[in-house]
Write a structure and sequence with these properties.
Elements: E1 2-4, E2 16-28, E3 32-38, E4 43-49, H1 55-63, E5 69-78, E6 86-97, H2 112-117, H3 119-122, H4 126-148, E7 152-153, E8 159-160, E9 172-175, E10 178-182, H5 187-197, E11 199-207, E12 220-229, H6 233-254, H7 256-261, H8 266-270, E13 278-280, H9 281-290, H10 303-310, E14 317-320, E15 333-334, E16 337-341, E17 343-348, E18 353-360, H11 365-374, H12 383-387, E19 396-402, H13 403-411
Parallel strand pairs: 1-2, 4-6, 7-11, 13-14
Antiparallel strand pairs: 2-3, 2-5, 3-4, 5-6, 8-10, 9-10, 11-12, 12-19, 14-17, 15-16, 17-18, 18-19
Helix pairs in contact: 4-6, 4-13
Bound molecules: 4-amino-1,4-dioxobutan-2-aminium adenosine-5'-monophosphate and magnesium ion.
Amino acid sequence: MNSTTIENISKYEGQEVILKGWLYNKRSSGKIHFLQLRDGSGFIQGVVVKAEVSEDVFENCKKLTQESSLTVKGLVQKDDRAPSGYEILVKEVTPVHIAEEGYPISLKEHGTDFLMENRHLWMRTPKQNAILRIRDEINLAIRQFFHDRGFVLIEPPIITPSACEGTTELFEIDYFGENAYLSQTGQLYAEAAAMAFGNVYSFGPTFRAEKSKTRKHLNEFWMIEPEMAYVDFEGNLKVQEEMVEYIIGRVLENRKIELKILQRDTTVLEKIKAPFPRITYTDAVKLLQDGGFEFQWGEDFGAPHETYIAEKYDKPVFITHFPTKMKAFYMQPDPNNPEVILGADLIAPEGYGEIIGGSERIHDLELLLKKIEEENLPREIYEWYIDLRRYGSVPHSGFGLGLERTVSWICGVDHIRQTIPFARTLNRVYP
Ligand code: 4AD
Ligand code: MG
């Protein structure tokens, strides 16, 4: 007898299998039980017909409460209406644990606060499950993309002695009597590794003590940060667009059922092919002004601005050459116009906002020292980073892709808190 998962059920059409899972929902009449089963890999309907099973089996099904765990033996049959394409004609049911009555996530509508409070259970429902499975696919796609291109995965520390991205927004911790911080970005460490390995990427959690309550901000999120020696501004954008195209392709290929559960319009995703359009910051400002926005050169874009710009395109768009003053100290100013940097943000379509920030890095020692001084950064803490410009410095570039923003966009979900297993937001550190 084959024990299988719902995900792989198609291989067993016309055969008997064993499924190990949970009861998501149940409908019964006197002669038939419809068991909505889930096993983590998918959802499927099990049909228990009184006339075709022993009395024990039929009676046992009556005792099954929502979320009881059970194993089921039955025949796999095609069913074109089902998301999985199949159903199970059940022969045997073995309860493993009868769940207590009063399961919190009953099958009616609930408010999001209640669902977040019960995130440990909410994860079991089809949409949340689909989102996190797509997240897993994206995770794997990213690792594969970089691995295939010879990048080395380097894990930067999570506890850091200094601000890496900006001096506000830091979570401070007591490190044996000294101040230390939870990392905002692994970038500076990735730069060190790029000088040792050429092409590297880091992939880890990052922390920002931002008091934002938007649909796009988490206080703990995951970032992919490639860093590449001998790669300039142009080369940097090329890797980004190829990576995004690859990720989308993988999800479209391998997560069809999940995209269907989420009712995602995949035609918009199918259009996401490199190269991506570009607009300079300066031209984007003009676009906004022509569109009636009160917006001055030097200001940072808010969500409505990003959305307005993104709506002009049906692919993600690079906004390039931001004002130097707006961006982090390490970004390389454009030699032709030092007022702007050789960097870009990638803005996703459909109002999902910035998913990537990246740039060429300053590789000249004198210029870096000047920037550190201008920004009043404590130089002694950055000595190791400055060393990279003392010993075999080369032009190099990198970027950071926010994993959860990418998942939000690809899944088409309206709030970033649904895209990470246990979200950390301004008002929530539980569960
Ligand atoms: O633009 P950011 O701040 O760039 C960096 O941290 C660079 N050091 C990256 C690099 O060049 N290695 O952040 C990069 C991305 C953003 O584009 C966004 O997708 C995501 O990280 N991000 C957030 N995601 C969720 N919640 C937040 N609070 C985020 N802040 C940034
Ligand atoms: Mg940014």
